[in-house]
Amino acid sequence: MADREHDHGHDHSELSDIQLRVRALETILTEKGYVDPAALDTLVESYETRIGPKVGAQIVARAWTDPQFKAALLKDATAAANGLGHISPVGSHLIAVENTPQTHNLVVCTLCSCYPWEVLGLPPVWYKSAPYRSRAVIDPRGVLGDFGLTLPPDTGIRIWDSTAETRFIVLPMRPAGTENWGEERLAEIVTRDCMIGTGLPQAESRK
Predict the structure, then answer these.
(1) Active-site residue, from 13, 46, 92, 112
(2) What is the pTM of this model?
């Protein structure tokens, strides 16, 4: 207990409660020899830099530039993602939902924090938080406002509740002014938040 209190008093002070618990659990498992820190670091680095959200961004960019792929993605996101070489157990449950001027999609997991890791990478801390999980259902416009996203009044919001059987990726609308952009450049403006529904891709963010 003393060691844990010591950690709280120093450079861990800005970590969230969830992050502190993860640190404590990792320490215990490492001390007992159940976890190899180097292997764990490699796994985390893979999800942070090589997978998420790059895999999802590639999927979105391909859908923006390839109408046939977009149709396949909306019909069967698992098969479409697998067609790009992204095959995973979680991916086998993947469903793509498309934003339109009439409908904006927002993904939440009200029971826990089900999330397509192999497509979006590590889930953000706020996605797992109780306030997001509850407010996203009862006050979605308020939640989007917290993220700085204000939708037109006539745009409806549809909530998708992830489960162990179904994981979602939002296909955001392609921003105006990107008509001549290639797939690689488009992928650079697709963020994790865009694919959860708490953000929108911005063409001006990549000039």
Answers:
(1) 112
(2) 0.76
For the chain, what is the domain count? 2
User: Catalytic annotation on 194?
Assistant: no
Q: Tell me the β-bridge partners of 95.
A: 168
The number of angstroms, rounded, from the C-alpha of 58 to the middle of its chain's C-alpha atoms is 13
Beta strands per DSSP E along the chain: 94-98, 103-108, 156-161, 167-171
Structural domain for 132, as ranges: 52-205
pLDDT of residue 108: 97
Please choose, from the candidates 89, 67, 68, 64, the residue with its C-alpha nearest in 3D space to the C-alpha of residue 78.
89
Given 88, 92, 113, 129, the catalytic residue: 113
Q: Do 31 and 72 have their domain in common?
A: no
**Res. 164 pLDDT band, cuts 50 70 90:** confident
**94 part of a folded domain:** yes
Cβ atoms of 195 and 120 within 8 Å: the answer is: yes
